[in-house]
Amino acid sequence: MSFKDVFKKSVLDGFVQSDISSVSVIATLSITALLALYIYAIYRLTSRSSFYNRDFNKTLGVMPIITAAIVLAMQSSIVISLGMVGALSIVRFRNAVKDPMDLLYLFWSIGIGIICGARLYEIGIITSLAVTIVIFLLDLIPAAKPPYLLVLNSSDRELEPALQELLKSYTKSSRIKSRNLTAQGLDMIVEVRTEKGSQLVSACAALPGVESVNLLAHDGEARF
């Protein structure tokens, strides 16, 4: 037996003689569709309203079905397998991901499509449940509250000592981020951690020479 015969028997015949019935295809795509709808629902439930993208979520619901169909097609013939590899290698995705969690859902969606396409349904179901549990458990971990930014404009260029004394009374900690001294006065940006935001603004506004006070917050997360 020549090397060509061995290669044909071990590799080529395995692809050409693959038996995928219509019932198996329908069952695979049906289970994949159910898991895809599950991913769609979990993403809608856990995503932040400000970052929720309905079109992206619909993509998550359809992508596993397409991926499973590709995997099934690749199992039927080595020619189709090589053609799929060539076709998919030229695909480029250039959409910016706004939320890092979107990468997790995207990989989850593609992974479920591959797993179901290989007809390993139990692994797909168990994996989906495990990912859901971990996501909800991680959401229970409290995030550190980010500091505020106190922006103050004053006509008094010697305001800083009085401001420092006031910050000791109304904040847990403070750090000056910017000082801008001009002929018209003093502009300052101070990073503060406080639970008395409204009282702090009122006290700062009562300082002599203060023209405007702004206390800014953002929706980001702090890390210690």
What would you note in describing this structure?
With 224 residues, this protein is of the alpha+beta class. The protein has helices spanning 3-16, 22-46, 54-76, 78-88, 100-117, 121-140, 160-170, 197-205; strands at residues 148-154, 173-181, 186-193, 210-216. It has a four-stranded antiparallel sheet, covered by helices on one side. The model has no long low-confidence stretch (mean pLDDT 80).
Strand content: 5-15%
Largest sheet: 4 strands, antiparallel
Order of helices and strands: HHHHHHEHEEHE
Structural class call reads alpha+beta
What integer is the average pLDDT? Answer: 80
* Tally of DSSP β-strands: 4
Helix content: 55-70%
Radius of gyration: 30 Å
Q: What is the subunit arrangement here?
A: single chain
Total helical segments: 8
- Give unreliable regions as ranges: none
Terminus-to-terminus distance: 67 Å
Question: Reading side by side through the largest sheet, how are the strands ordered?
Answer: 2-3-1-4
Shape assignment: elongated
Brief rundown of the structure:
The protein has 224 residues and is an alpha+beta fold.
